[in-house]
Amino acid sequence: MICRNLRIAAFVLALSLLLPAASFAQRASFSVGPLAAAPGTRASGFLEVPARGADQGTRIPVTVIHGAKAGPVLGLVAGTHGYEYAPIVAMQRFPAKVDPQELAGTIIIVHVANMPSFLSRTIYYSPTDGKNLNRVYPGKADGTLSERIADAITREVIEKSDYVADLHCGDGNEALRPYSYWMTNGTPTVNAKSKEMVLAFGLDHIVIDNERSGDPAKSVYTANTAITRGKPAITTETGGMGQVDAEGVDLAEAGAFNLLRHFKMLGGEPKRAEHPIWIDRNEVLRAPETGTFHARVKPGLTVAQGSILGVLTDFFGKTIQEVRAPFSGVILYVVATPPVNQGEPLAMVGHLKMPE
Q1: Which residue of 14, 57, 171, 301 has the smallest Cβ count within 10 Å?
Q2: Domain containing 299: what range?
């Protein structure tokens, strides 16, 4: 009898070593606001931003894909600017291509962060409070609508993620060549992991951004809000001009899958940027006055210092300013529609880092 019991115990022990850990310790559901996804499932719904004062509030569409296996949490945020359609469309079609049963970890997808801007087709600014959502982070629970959206995304997405990618493209007035930002204001560990993220995403032009605030209470930008909280993060740019172009959508979707493979959340290897072009400084040229801008360059063009990028005129066609390149570099984006307000961007020039 003793021998028989020992044999049974040995069999149970051997079996336990072969079975997945989840068989013995069930993974918990993952919640974002009112959404809860059990392991191996997905859930979609809205984060509610209640009305306050004169505004009617808004809703933020979110999908949670909770993998059957343990792993990191990746936050993907699209639609910070509502007229940036390529990543929004990419994040609509992306969830259906991810099998939760094969996923290790969890994905939080914000489909449209700035619904007021999206529905009103506005560039840069919210039609409700005139604020740029990507300039008000980490937000305020009792602030204007843009500030309350930022607060909700900070609490429910960024703080629940291990890694964050803020997915942008050229706004409705901006022609843009694909590029991404590597922010270097975090800890050495966070900076190193963010660098690996930006290479894994796959875009070959990478802006080195070392001018962000390190204060978590004044993080200003979506990705920087993650970095100031110790979470590696990147910002990407694919597409532009308020178009749903196949290239911009495909690049955003492919980049998201590259990140999943980079973090071993899915099988396979990411298609990394093999020969990245590093941009060690950049300048956004802005309109000194309200007027009409006539671009003379296209995104991706390499220009010499002093080259004319465009001409700003008044409404009668009189030249206000010839806009020239401050240094030699590449045009990352240029405003390709005529109307501009004082202080708004006209073009962005990136200086190419020399090989070491």
Answers
A1: 14
A2: 281-352
